[in-house]
Amino acid sequence: MAKEEKIKFEHNRSTDVMFVDIRPAEEGATISTVDVGAAIGVPGQIHARVDFEREVIYGLTVQNYRAFRRRMFWRYHFASMKKAISFLIAALRINLCLEDRCHNHHALQS
After folding, report:
1. Are 68 and 62 in contact, with CB atoms under 8 Å apart?
2. Is 26 exposed, middle or buried (0-12, 13-18, 19+ CB in 10 A)?
3. If you write DSSP's letter for every residue of 61-78 in order, what string do you get?
4. For a Cys-Cys bond, which of 8, 40, 43, 86 suits 21, CB 3.0-4.6 Å?
5. Is 1 a domain residue?
6. Domain limits at 82?
């Protein structure tokens, strides 16, 4: 992660939603919300705020945080949620870059 990023975690206990803010939105950003939970077996539960054009992830929203936390501890053996979230963010960044490269590669072949 870049040095200027300070990841903020905020868990709303009454709604059991975790908000993870990675960086503030840039001026002129086109932000899309993408369901990324299916990739780790929790479809509809984790959404990423992404600018595909700039290849930037602005944050995550985790629905049903307590169940997500249990899954990460028991199934994937993460010792802390910060490490689990950091791993998820890194995987999303890699996927975002690779998909963009693949899209450009296929466009060049056409």
Report:
1. yes
2. exposed
3. EESSHHHHHHHHHHTT--
4. 8
5. no
6. 8-109
**Structural domain includes residue 41:** yes
Split into its structural domains, the chain has a count of 1
Domain assignment of residue 3, yes or no: no
**Mean pLDDT lowest among 16-30, 69-83, 92-106:** 92-106
Judge if pTM exceeds 0.90. Answer: no
Average pLDDT of every residue of the chain = 81
Round to whole Å and give the CA distance between 15 and 22: 21
User: Range with the lowest mean pLDDT among 32-36, 38-42, 62-66?
Assistant: 38-42
Angle between helices 81-109 and 65-74 (to 10 degrees): 90
Alpha helices in 20-109 (DSSP H): 65-74, 81-109
Sign of CA dihedral 19, 93, 54, 37: negative
Q: Which residues contact 35 (CB under 8 A, 6 or more apart)?
A: 43, 44, 46, 47
Please compute Rg for the chain using Cα positions: 15
